[in-house]
Amino acid sequence: MERLPLSFFSFFCFLLLSVLSLAVWTDGGSIGVNYGRVANNLPSAAKVVQLLKSQGIEKVKIYDADPAVLHAFAGTGIRLTVDLPNGLLFAAARSLSYSLVWVQRNVAAYHPATQIEAIAVGNEVFVDPGNTTKFLVPAMKNIHTALVKYNLHNAIKISSPVALSALQASYPSSAGSFRPELIEPVFKPMLDFLRQTGSYLMVNAYPFFAYESNSDVISLDYALFRENPGVVDSGNGLRYFSLFDAQIDAVFAAMSALKYDDIKMVVTETGWPSKGDENEVGASKDNAAAYNGNLVRRILTGGGTPRRPQADLTVYLFALFNENKKPGPSSEQNYGLFYPNEDKVYDIPFTVEGLKNYHDSGKSTPVGGGQRTVPAPVRGGVSKSSSGPNTWCVASGEAGKEKLQAALDFACGEGGADCRPIQRGSTCYDPNTLEAHASYAFNSYYQMKGRAFWTCDFGGAASIVSQPPKFGKCEFPTGY
């Protein structure tokens, strides 16, 4: 039987109990931040440490293993997750000796003075244009072997952040499943490795992506953890009051479908931009403050998701600073919680103590078009950590001529893609190959549809990349 909609009174009572629990709660989830450094105006690592300590932030994730950062965090008590970049996966996978040296220089040389608690091997490898997916699990295993050599395998966990684009289906959440082509070669061996080593799956989840692409049907209140009627999962009857919970449970369902219900999860990235271009619906300071502030309250007051209610979550907010050298639209440079001068972009707490005085302002940036009160299907996207909206859709040369031609005809026909540049005599006619023309058409369709990952499929004839495609002198657009 379908559960009854939550009344305003019961929702108010729920919020009241959550607030009252702050006075006594001691064992909720935990909040960390991503310390990205794609900028030329950030404070020194030593100053960053002082900023983090002043805010009570005790968990930090970085995107490399920079010696200056590792030295600065020594003796601070702040727990650190370091990253083996995608560009090093090949070497780590092919050579155990390389992995041993990397761990010795970047981990063993600093731990335990610098409290490294995890290594992220790669980042969103499945959308890496370098085709590094096949090196992921071997690299994870070699890095783990190196940790064993230095007797660090019990103190430091190994995982790899995946974006929601790794899901084949995510709506309803109970129907969550991984992309079929990734299950046998990657997900099963990776989840086996996580189980054997007592580690967890790292997931990057951005409700902003889904809202930005579907603002006419997704409730902004649902995306920002505000009062809303919720949506019932038709597969199991559970009611969801936030897009974040629905996205996370879609990943849990995907793991469950493969019989990995025992694997825990850490959300290694999530966030909301405080500013964006005119077409980036929902990107505003008020919305960013509401999303991150209400998320902190949601995590620190304890409790898991509807599917795993007892599983407290660890969540890393993206990102510590606005980063002025990140490529892409304006939102890419405006995910920060702080400006480079260390002033807050907006005022939210990061600790249970700080939550006692926190109140969501209730202000939301209006969006165009009418909104339904019932949220739309939960869909993921490529994470803002590496490329975000700065992604392209290209044809797969292995799809075959017949499939590519049929997909090209659809994109330029009823799909509505702008195929004028690939006509004879136009800017992108050369090179005159089916793959090049199909790539341009597929990308036009993908960009026009808001870069929603499911719009770059074309029956398996296309894939998403995070580096500009190279076909002659043709430039592929990243937005319309």
Written overview of the protein:
By secondary structure, the chain is of the alpha/beta class. Helices cover 32% and strands 12% of the residues. It has 14 helices and 15 strands. It has helices at 8-21, 45-54, 67-72, 89-94, 96-108, 136-149, 180-197, 207-213, 220-223, 243-257, 285-300, 352-355, 401-412, 434-448; strands at 30-34, 59-61, 79-84, 116-121, 157-159, 162-163, 167-169, 177-178, 200-204, 231-232, 239-240, 264-270, 314-317, 392-395, 462-465. The strands form 4 sheets. A 9-stranded parallel sheet has the order 5-4-3-2-1-13-12-9-6. It has a two-stranded antiparallel sheet with strand order 7-8. A two-stranded antiparallel sheet has the order 10-11. Helix 6 packs parallel to helix 7 (180-197). The radius of gyration is 22 Å and the shape is globular. Residues 1-26 and 366-388 have low confidence and may be disordered.
Q: How confident is the prediction overall: mean pLDDT?
A: 87
First-last Cα distance: 44 Å
Given the C-alpha coordinates, what overall shape results? globular
Give the helices and strands as they follow along the chain: HEHEHEHHEHEEEEHEHHEEHEHEHEHHE
Q: Roughly what percent helix?
A: 25-40%
Binned strand content: 5-15%
| Radius of gyration from the alpha-carbon trace, in angstroms | 22 Å
Q: Look at the helices and sheets and give the structural class.
A: alpha/beta
Strand order of the largest sheet: 5-4-3-2-1-13-12-9-6
User: Unreliable stretches, pLDDT < 50, 5 or more residues?
Assistant: 1-26, 366-388
Q: Please outline the major beta sheet.
A: 9 strands, parallel
Q: Can you count the beta strands?
A: 15
Distinct helical segment count: 14
